[in-house]
Amino acid sequence: MNKPDPRAHTGADSGFSYSRDTFEELVDAALAHAKKLGATDAGAEASEGCGLSVSVRKGELENVERNRDKSLGVTVYLGQRRGNASTSDFSRAAIEQTVQAAYDIARFTAEDPVAGLPDAEDIVRHDEAGRELDLFHPWAIRSEEAAELARATEAAAFQTDKRITNSEGAAVSAQQSHFFSAHTRGFRGGYASSRHSISVSPIAGKGEDMQRDYWYSSHRHPEDLALPEAIGRYAAERALSRLKARKISTREVPVLFESPLAAGLMGALVQALSGGALYRKSSFLLDSLGTQVLPGHIDVLEDPFLLRGKGSSPFDEEGVRVQARSIIEAGRVQGYFLSSYSARKLGMKTTGNAGGSHNLILSSRQTQPGDDLDAMLQKLGTGLFVTELMGQGVNYVTGDYSRGASGYWVEKGRIAYPVQEITIAGNMKDMLMGITAVGADAYNYGAKTVGSILINRMKVAGS
């Protein structure tokens, strides 16, 4: 499939209503008007998104939704006072009114000594801003075709076993967007991207013994999506394996987090190392730069340049250059996640993370190619294998962790029976330092890739 370029294509060719050139004109008009009003600095971004979402349940079409939205956002600086406004009206009058609104907000906003656009030396160069990362693969799928894909996914779940008795439905989504952004410190850049998915949620059992589970596949390119039959079958197998779940007594045991949930642990680590939490002193990892927060066999890398990566980008939301870097090396913190604002609050330099982290990869130097899930269960020995978590339950100030959970009780490296209605608890500092193994069963969840994670000891509250 040839990849349309939003610079050269509009309408039916790319699925977009507006071209890159049009967006550049809108943004330039907004910046020019801001300067005319007397702004010391300004930034603007024009964006458009469109897509199709179709869901079915028990073979019947349930929902067809087409979305198309557009926006122009403007930020105006008067010295170190800042104002923001946005509009979905792209007329010249509406743009000037939006800039005026941002200007007026800035006039009456208190000065913030660290407010402002990024420093000139941090802004991505023009040649770097245009780096091709293979992020745009529009899916020209019709609603009828999407419905058939969803039906095939759900049908595969029902056909797996007669104990699959119901379904919460299956869905297919095809989404794409593009933007252009610029500011008065010299940044200009934008690109198109896409994200598509197929998902299903089957229900197994009947009466008082009913269990639900789900599975999905999500990628930039539709050709990378898993087969509907594979998604449906695996979701059904997950639901079936949870039948006849038991409660267990309260105890303290090793806990193995399934790889999708392990990505959630990475999310907690990112939150604790993010500038906003650090300068507000609402992180359990304050002043952790250079300190040991994970075992010596653990590394965490950030790579914004992975082709088709869900967290890939040639620059951050402020137009700051990004780079592949080590976040954790041999368990020690090498870097935080900072925007220009949070960096200034901390007396540091931006890391190009305005808008969040890019593709993160957690790995263990001890992981062997054969360390699949079965091998990780062997390493767990006797303990809890967690496959679902409920509630938020993380205090980022203290690191205290408590989540509702379900999964499987494992004895001597083999799953003994499913468990439910339990709570797992610990402290994130202890949990991170207690990682004894990381599986080779790497899973990509959003912008994070990690295998299953084994933690040496956690409290499990049951009956």
Can you tag this structure with a few keywords?
single chain; 463 residues; alpha+beta; 8-stranded antiparallel sheet; 6-stranded mixed sheet; 23% helix; disordered N terminus
Topology as H/E string?
HEEEHHHEEEEEHEHHEEEHEHEEEHEEEE
Measured as a percent range, the helix fraction is: 10-25%
Count of separate DSSP helical elements? 10
Low-confidence stretches: 1-12
- How many E strands? 20
Terminal Cα separation, in Å? 55 Å
Q: Mean pLDDT, nearest integer?
A: 94
Secondary-structure content class = alpha+beta
Computed Rg: 24 Å
What percentage of amino acids are in beta strands?
Answer: 35-45%
Mind summarizing the main beta sheet? 8 strands, antiparallel
Overall geometry comes to globular
Topology summary:
Elements: H1 20-37, E1 41-57, E2 60-78, E3 81-87, H2 92-107, H3 126-129, H4 143-160, E4 164-183, E5 188-189, E6 192-206, E7 209-212, E8 215-219, H5 228-240, E9 251-257, H6 259-272, H7 275-279, E10 298-302, E11 325-329, E12 332-333, H8 340-345, E13 360-364, H9 373-380, E14 383-390, E15 400-411, E16 414-427, H10 428-433, E17 435-438, E18 443-445, E19 448-450, E20 453-461
Parallel strand pairs: 9-14, 13-19
Antiparallel strand pairs: 1-2, 1-4, 2-3, 4-5, 4-6, 6-7, 6-8, 9-20, 10-11, 10-13, 11-12, 14-15, 15-16, 16-20, 17-20, 18-19
Helix pairs in contact: 1-2, 4-5
